[in-house]
Amino acid sequence: MATLQDLENAIDALLGHPLGVAQYQLIRRVEEKAYEAYVFGLCLRAVRELRVTPVLRGIIGTPTPFVFRGAPGQIHSRARNYGYAEFTLNGHDFEIHAGVEFRGTSKMTHELDVCVMRGTDARACRSPQSLDDPQAASLVGGWECKFYAGNLQKGLGRAFVGLIDDMGSNVRLSGLCSNSDHLQLRDYFEPQRRPYPHFHLTPLQPSNEDIFVNLIKGELKKMTAA
Question: Which residues contact 98 (CB under 8 A, 6 or more apart)?
Answer without folding.
Answer: 36, 37, 39, 40, 68, 69, 84, 113, 114, 115
